[in-house]
Structure formats: structure tokens, C-alpha cells
Amino acid sequence: MEVGFGLVHGKRVIVREGSVEDLPEVSARRWWRMLSIADAGRFLHQRYGSRAGGVEALGAGAWSVAYAFTLDGRDAVARFGQYGDDFAKDRRMGACASPRLPIPRVLDSGEAPGGHFAVSERVHGIPIDDLDGARMRAVLPSLFRALDALAEIDVSARRGFGSWGPDGDADTPDWPSALCRFAGNRLSGWRARLEASPIGTGPMEIAAARLQELTRDLPEVRHVIHGDLLHWNVFADGPSISGLIDWGNSLYGDALYDAAWLIFWWPWYPQWAEIDIRAEFERHWADRGAVPPQRELRLLCYQLRIGLEHIAYNAWTGNEPHLRRCAQQTLELAMDAPR
Q1: How far apart are CA 338 and CA 202, in angstroms?
Q2: 0.85 exceeded by the pTM?
Q3: What is the DSSP string of 30-98?
């Protein structure tokens, strides 16, 4: 099976034939500009001439749309979107790729009509979201090795915590403050939509207050965090991870955040119900002789932050079933947190 690039946040639609106009209306409403396959083909032909061919629609999400094509006879992906910073972060992370951490290189990027574009190496494989339990269990060792390699990237020359920009620096001076900033400026109007929803702001207010209390005791550690594992951003080929893509949500902070991401979302994948992901992490840490201190507190804080971020996101998108489930899960975490 071959698929293209995963897309930031939300349900991603895979398209193998046709054009972006075939995508559901919900994706179109979130899109900055609808781009047909003919539009993409013209852009790529104008930029690369006969070097480009075989344009094929892959999918669209909240922030970009992707097309597969060949460039100089090699498989590539062209993405078009409003936020060029996301593509710049992909370029910076592509330079950090290694056998344990397969990240596709960005080959070209710049301005496109109405926004920005990036051309990257194409990742082949199956998104881990689509794996059954047996195949997911087989992939976990490779995924854990990739996360270990990510945590080993040297960021000592970079500054700040939280979301970082194309220059490689983040603006927030400390990790607790970064954690308590959980809704970016892309989600304009999310609070009003949450207030108007059947859920209301109650669960968010309780969880946010608990997070703020707990972050005071967190260790000040700084690593590169992917920040959007799952959601069609991690690919596997057999038992090995074949690509980690879409670094627009990447943060500087505690590497355990990515572990918390998997733990938080794991119940949303019923095909993995027989895998205790927390126990798998514990076994991996013990085997490496690197069991993280204060891990209960750290994992709890990061799950609260992930839940809060997605309460805001699902309020913004109007996805009430996901909003309700996310709010309930986050509220339970907050209420069960030690006092």
C-alpha cells in the first residue's frame, strides 16, 4: 500500500484518484484555497518542466493539501498550504534524519499562488493508524527507537520551550508556561464555539486549573517533540517505521510528551485494545536502563495538555462526538490527579 503525507490535526482523507473537489465538504470548509489536480499539475510543470510527471491527488486536511508526483524519476510529494512555517519546520527536521529516525527531506519550498508549497521525498508504507493489533505490536520496538533517537537530537544551541519556528527557536521561556498555552492562533473563535456547545467550558476550566497546579513540579528538560504522532503522520513498512512526517506541531520540551500522546489516544483505536501501551513503554525504559523519574506526574500533565488542546480543536471544527469524548477523558484525568 502506498500513501502520501499525513496532514496536521483532524481526520485525514486519502484520495488515490480524482481531484481535491472529491473531498468531503467538511475539509473544504477548513481549507485556505481549493486546488484542483490540474492546478497542481500546472504549478509543478511550470516549476520543473519535464522533470515532473504523474501527478496524483493524495489528500487534504485542515492546513494543507498533498499531491504525489515524480520528480527526476523519483517519487515525491508536493504540498500546498497557507502556513509556510510548517514546511520550514519539516525542512529543518529532515536534516536530522537517521536510520533510526526516518524523516523525509524537503527538496524544495517557497511561495505558491495563495500560500506556500513544499516538495518532499515520498514516504511509502502504511500509516500506523491503519495497523491491526498484531502488526502494531510488531512495529512498537522500531517506533520506540525512533522516539529515543528524536530525544537525542542536540538542541542546546536553540532557545525556548513549546512551539518553535523556522529559525529553530521558541519564544516561551519555560516549559510550564508553554504547556499552559494550548490553543494557537489558527483556532480563531474556538472558545465562543465551546461556550455555545452542549459541553460548555466547565471540563476545560477544571482541567486547565489542575494542569497549572501540577506543572510547578515538572523537571525543566528540553528535547525535540513531534507533537502529532498518529493521525496519519507515522508510517510503517513491515515491522519498521518508514517515515515520521508533518512537524508543524513540533515542540521543545520533555520527550515524554510523545509517550503521553500515544497513551492518551490509544483508547481511540479499538484494534489495539489488547496492547497495554503504558506497560510497553515501561518495559522499553527498563530494558534501556533509563526509567524516567517523576514519570507519573509528567505523563499526567502532558495528557491533560493534549486533552485541552483537542477540546479547543474539536470545538473549533464543530466535531461534537469527538469534543464530548475528549472532554470526558480529559476531565477524568483532572479529577483523578493526586492532590
Answers
A1: 20
A2: yes
A3: H-SS---HHHHHHHHHHHHGGGEEEEEEEEE-SSEEEEEEEETTEEEEEEEES-HHHHHHHHHHHTT--
Q: Indicate whether 19 pLDDT > 50.
A: no
Angle between helices 320-336 and 202-214 (to 10 degrees): 40
- Cα 28 from chain centroid (whole Å): 20
Instruction: Return the ∠ at Cα 44 (arms to 41 and 49), rounded to 5°.
Output: 110
Report the SS3 class of residue 99. coil
24, amino acid identity = P
Return the higher-pLDDT residue of 92 and 59: 92
- Between CA 302 and CA 296 the distance in angstroms is 10
Q: Mind listing the domains of the chain with CATH numbers? A: 13-121 (3.30.200.20), 127-336 (3.90.1200.10)
Higher pLDDT, 257 or 7: 257
Q: Give CA angle at 302 (254, 106), nearest 5°.
A: 60
Q: Report phi then psi at 316, rounded to 5.
A: -65, -40
The total of other beta-carbon atoms located within 10 Å of residue 32's CB is: 16
> Which helix (H) or strand (E) is 6 found in, with range?
none
Confidence of residue 244 (pLDDT cuts 50, 70, 90): very high
- Cβ burial of 189 (10 Å; 0-12, 13-18, 19+) is exposed
Are 13 and 25 in contact by the 8 Å Cβ rule? The answer is no
SS3 259: helix
95-125: pLDDT as tens digits: 999 999 999 999 999 998 878 999 999 999 9
Q: Which amino acid is at 140?
A: L
Find out whether 303 and 264 touch, Cβ atoms under 8 Å: yes
What is the chain's mean pLDDT, rounded? 89
